[in-house]
Amino acid sequence: MTNSILINHIKTYVTFSEEELSEIVLFFDYHSYHKKETLLLAGKQCNKLFFVLKGCLQLYFIDNLGNQKTSQFAIEHWWLTDFLAFQNQNQSNFYIETVENSKIVSISFSKYQELLDTFPKMEKYFRTIYETAYGAALMRFKYINSFSKEELFFRFRDNFPEFVQRVPQYLLASFLGLTPEYLSEIKRK
Amino acid sequence: MTNSILINHIKTYVTFSEEELSEIVLFFDYHSYHKKETLLLAGKQCNKLFFVLKGCLQLYFIDNLGNQKTSQFAIEHWWLTDFLAFQNQNQSNFYIETVENSKIVSISFSKYQELLDTFPKMEKYFRTIYETAYGAALMRFKYINSFSKEELFFRFRDNFPEFVQRVPQYLLASFLGLTPEYLSEIKRK
Q1: pLDDT over 90 (residue A58)
Q2: Residue A79 CB contacts under 8 Å (≥ 6 apart), including other chains
Q3: Residues in chain B with pLDDT values less than 70
Q4: A12 touches chain B (CB under 8 A)
Q5: Measured between CB atoms, which of A120, A138, A145 is closest to B83?
Q6: I need a surface site. Which of A90, A126, B33, B135 has the fewest CB within 10 A?
Q7: Residue A120's closest CA among B131, B116, B132, B21?
Q8: Kindly report the CA angle at B76 between B70 and B81, in degrees rounded to 5?
């Protein structure tokens, strides 16, 4: 059952009674998507926060030349949205799209506020999630500033071999700031 | 009074009684530092979380060639540490150093846990802080992937002119992934 994945994730961080958990899950919506479906549009109000039960999401933007550029991936048990736009209820700076067929949990901004007000212990859950996510972002800035794009690719492949198998080459290239041609060239070496 | 800056920042996000606030401030330590003092050492256990009352901190690492590279700055009202290492009580991947003479609040990991347990509403405060910080990191990934290093410099200068005045050139160059020589060259154009 899809609910159990999110419940187990929440239970890793915070203790709730079974009754509380059965109420908490009602705040969320559950949807299955095919590959390449759009869940969030840049330029539209960012009203949803997403959690990956199964599959993969990408957060991307389109640059001045019309190229799609990935800023973040989310696989199983990751939360994703344009957090600044979500928090301020502004227009999104990013698109969110499924990379694979995916099972996704979502929560609207108003339900998120209601959830946090009704179950304040969920603050601890999200505090811990975001603390980790921000910490990981600082490490990513370190990697970006430490290595050439070529070295970044090899490090990424060594650290996340399964992920590199899962994700199309052109998306991985875009995430690492490489052109697809350059990635093909590196891989031939 | 230095306490009032942190109290006012907390009050922006969460409502506490004056009595609660007077207890909360006791969890924190307050120190003044000169420019270029080290607050956190890479390779040592990361046991402190910092808040800038006045001044500026930088989070940096030293690359294989011995160059200091800045991953993050924190000015007034920003929290900073190696969050992954702090959360897991591991060795820090970064150094933290004052960029200017600074007044800094710090809290140890055990006091942070005690604070969150004693005043669960502080979870909301830090949840909001980290939500914003992670959202800002996603925007920074977007900028890094959108612009050449030269364009990044000009965008940064236009968006944060006061900050560019405050911070030494070589640190700004390091933050933007430029060599100081390249930054000088750009600025001459």
Answers
A1: yes
A2: A49, A50, A51, A126, A129, A133
A3: 1-2
A4: no
A5: A138
A6: A90
A7: B116
A8: 45
| Interatomic CA distance for residues A49 and A25, integer angstroms | 14
- Give yes or no for B128 touching A (CB within 8 A): yes
Which token pair is B111?
Answer: 């006091």
Q: How confident is the model at residue A146 (pLDDT cuts 50, 70, 90)?
A: confident
The CA distance from B52 to B43, in Å, is: 23
CA A159 – CA A156 distance, rounded (Å): 5
pLDDT of B162 reads 86
Which of A8-17, A178-187, B130-139 has the lowest average pLDDT? A178-187
Do the Cβ atoms of B144 and A177 come within 8 Å? yes
Residues of A in contact with B84 (CB under 8 A): 132, 135-136, 138-139
- pLDDT at residue A186, rounded to an integer: 74
User: What is the C-alpha to C-alpha distance for residues B125 and B134, in angstroms, rounded to an integer?
Assistant: 14
3-state secondary structure A104-163: EEEEEHHHHHHHHHHCCHHHHHHHHHHHHHHHHHHHHHHHHHHCCHHHHHHHHHHHCHHH
> For residue B126, which of A9, A130, A122 has the smallest C-alpha distance?
A130
For residue B1, the model assigns a pLDDT of 52
pTM: 0.94
B130 touches chain A (CB under 8 A): yes
Q: Answer whether B82 sits within 8 Å of A132, measured CB to CB.
A: no
pLDDT digits (tens, 9 = 90+) for A82-113: 999 999 999 999 999 999 999 999 999 999 99
Which residue type does B184 have?
Answer: S
